[in-house]
Design brief:
Helix content: 40-55%
Order of helices and strands: EEHEEHHHHHEHHHHHHHHEEEEHHEEEE
Oligomer: single chain
Length: 461
Amino acid sequence: MTASVTTDAPNRYPPRVALVREKWGLLQTLRAARRNLLEILPEIATRQPMVSGRTGIRWHMVMDPDALRHILKDRVEDYPKSDVTKLLLGPAIGDSLFVAEGAHWHWQRRAAAPAFAPRPVSALAPVMTAAAERAAARIAVAEGRAANLFDEMVTATFEVIADVTLSGGGQIDRDAVHGAIDSYIAQVAKVSLLDMLGVPGWVPRPSRMGSARVLGQMKSVADRAIEDRRAAGPRPVPDLLDLLMDGADPETGRRMSPAELRDNLLTFIVAGHETTALTLAWALYLCAFDPVVQERARAEAQAVLGSGSRVRAATGADVSHLPYTRQIIDETLRLYPPAAILSRTAQAPDTLCGREIRRGDTVMLPIYALHRSHLLWSDPDRFDPGRFAPGQAVDRFAFLPFGGGPRICIGASFALQEAVIILSTLLARFRFDLVPGRNPKPVLILTLRPDGGVWLRVAPA
C-alpha cells in the first residue's frame, strides 16, 4: 500500500495524506520516506499517545502532550537532535544554533537572543509592511487569472529576510539561494537506508556524496556577505548580521567564529523565509478552500486597513487588531506545520507513557500526527480557525509548530508578525479562489511543501 493525498467530497477537508494502515518492511518504509516522510506515519498515531516499533533501529513516535513536555522541557538534555537530523542538516549549517547541543547551544542562544527580543522584532515590522505592499503589487498583475501563490510568498518572505539580515540583500540572489535549497533537498535531505539501519554518521551516504557543489554555493553566499560587511562596517541602524557579528555570550564574552557566524547566518536566511513562505501559501489555499473564513478575514482586514482605493498595507501596530487573521495562521500551522516531524536520540534510559526507552532509541515527534490527533482535537482534519479563538484552551504541548521548551524556535514571534502582516494585506485587496484539479499535495522531505505549488485564481476584493 502506498499513501495518497485525499480531498474529501463535498470539500469538507483540505488535502491530507492518507496515513499507513498496515505494517511495512524496511525497504517499503525507505521508499516511502524518500518520496514523502508523511507516508511513513501510521494512522494509529492519530489515535494513540505513543507508537513504537523497529525498522532497523528501535523507534518511538510520541503524541502525548505530557510526554512531549518531558522530552522538550523537563529532560531536554537527554533528548538531543537525532543523529539523522544532524546528518541531514550538519553539512549545510554546521554546528549552528539549530543543531548544536549542550553548552555550545546555550552560548549561541544567549549571543543571538537580543536580536529576537520583542523590541527588535517590532522594529522590523516596516520591512514586512514594505514587502507586503510589493507582493500585493505583483499579485495585482495576475487579477483575472490563476497564479502560483507559493512562488509569490517565497519572493515576499525572501525580501523580508534579505532586508533584516543584510540591509537590502544586494549581495545575494534570491533565485540562486532558493535554487540551492531545492537542490540540497533533492540531493541530500532524504533519508538513506544507512540512516534507517543506524549506521554511524562517519560512514559515507552515497546519495549525499555529490552535494559539495550545492553546499559550496550556499556557503559562499554567506561568506561574501560577511566579508562585505566587515569591509563596509556596521550600518547606522544595525541589521541581523550586525547584531550577530557584535553579539557575545553575556556570561563568557565569547563571540562567534567566522564559521559559526556563517552557519548561523545561513540558518536564519533559509529558515527565516522558507517556513514563513510555506505557512502563507498554505493559509491562502485554506482561505480559498473555505470562502466563509476568507470573507470573515477580509472584513476584519478591511476594517483595520481600509478598502478600495483607500486600502493600505498592514503594519506592526495593526497585528493586535487582526486576531482572526492570527487564528487562520495558527490553524494553518496546525494542519500543515513546516517542521512536520522532529526527531531525537535518547541519551539515557527513560520511561514514556509507561514504555521503556533505551539509550540510543530514536524518539520521533510527529507534529503532523500530533496536530491531527483524535485524542486532542475535535474532527482534527477539518479546517477551523475557531479552535484558536479567545477563550479556547489549547495544551501548550499539543500545538508545537515552533517546537517547545528552551529550544523553541528563536524566530517564532518574527515569523508570526510577518505572516499576519502579509496575509491581512493580501486578503484586504484580493479574493482567492480554488483552481479545479490543482489541489496542492502535502509532501515532507525537509519541510512540508505544497507539491505542485499553490495555484489560485486572483480577483479584486
